[in-house]
Amino acid sequence: MNNEHQPGRLKGRVAVVTGASRGAGRGIAIELGAAGATVYVTGRSTREQPAQSYGQIMSLSGLDTMPGTIDATAEAVSREGGVGIAVRCDHTREDEVQALFEQVQRDHGRLDLLVNNAWGGHESFDGKFEMPFWEHLLSHWDAMMDRGVRNHLLASRAAAPMLVRQGHGLIVATTFWDRDRYLRGNLYYDLAKAAINRLAFGVAQELRPHGVASLAVSPGWMRTELVLTGHQTDEAHWQERPALARTESPRYLGRAVAALAADANVMQKSGSVLRVADLAREYGFTDVDGRVVEAFEIEDSP
Predict the structure, then answer these.
(1) Of residues 180, 182, 174, 60, the one with CA closest to residue 133
(2) Which residues are catalytic, by number?
(3) How many CA atoms lie within 13 A of 165 on its CB side?
(4) HEC states along 156-180?
(5) CA 200, CA 67: separation in Å to the nearest integer?
């Protein structure tokens, strides 16, 4: 079926997208807005108060400030036809996460979709991805697990009572997955993504009796703002960089999440890890440039 040309298919639905200042979260929020949803755009980066924990990656990327804010994303959601609501939330703090979902309950009395995307891995990035595990800094564990996987758990835990009471809803985790192949060169990243996948699976088992679905969605290599900066280009000129030929826009992932949110039979997928490229074929959507981008696959070990 083709959901791409049904702009109002999520009208009246309420979504929370965590970590939506930039990258995957921004792409998802905008596509949910294009489908008519009300989207709570959460994260720590606002125009008045940028997040303070990205100094290392900013230095490596030659940036004075991190790109993107929740305010700008919320405005983009509204421009696309949805309702964007920016809420500053540090997703490592249980009290702020709880307050976020209490606000959603007060404002709308319902929640149809939670997208767990807030991720701390960039905070410890030192420019070295592929190394033996004994040479990687242990700080990567804290960034990816305590400020990554734990973020997913905190938001799911706070949202679950509302979803259970209403007897329907969907939790989507953003992840990376290539049919359980090992992500060579970064054991911490491999463990974090495997934990996210297992968390989505476990949550699905516990929420299934209540009519609530949980699953994980894996994009390929996305042209996030930081990727574009690293290749000294932008979204308008990325095709001039042959190294980016295999990339996809964050909105490709967003279209996958919007299609899942609109699927009345999404419970049949609960507990699964799904690749964006496979969902594009199933639901009939394309990336922003009209391509069906093939799934990113890890090369086999020699």
Answers:
(1) 182
(2) 189
(3) 9
(4) HHHHHHHHHHHCCEEEEEECCCCCC
(5) 29
State the sign of the Cα–Cα–Cα–Cα dihedral 162, 167, 171, 177: positive
Per-residue pLDDT of the chain (302 residues; tens, 9 = 90+): 444 457 789 999 999 999 999 999 999 999 999 999 999 999 999 988 877 666 666 666 777 777 789 999 999 999 999 999 999 999 999 999 999 999 999 999 999 999 999 987 777 677 777 888 998 888 889 999 999 999 999 999 999 999 999 999 999 999 998 888 888 778 999 999 999 999 999 999 999 999 999 999 999 999 988 888 888 898 999 999 999 999 999 999 999 999 999 999 999 999 999 999 999 999 999 999 999 999 988 776 55
- At 60, list the tokens: 């490596």
Strand partners, 215: 172
User: What is the value of pTM for the model shown?
Assistant: 0.93
Alpha carbons 274 and 278: distance in angstroms, whole number: 7
Q: What's the CA gap between 278 and 19, in Å, rounded?
A: 24
Picking from 119, 150, 126, the residue whose alpha carbon sits closest to that of residue 20 is: 119
Say if residues 34 and 6 touch (Cβ distance below 8 Å).
no
Strand partners, 12: none
- Domains plus CATH for the chain? 14-283 (3.40.50.720)
**C-beta separation of 110 from 162 below 8 A:** yes
Burial class, 264, CB count within 10 angstroms (exposed 0-12 / middle 13-18 / buried 19+): exposed
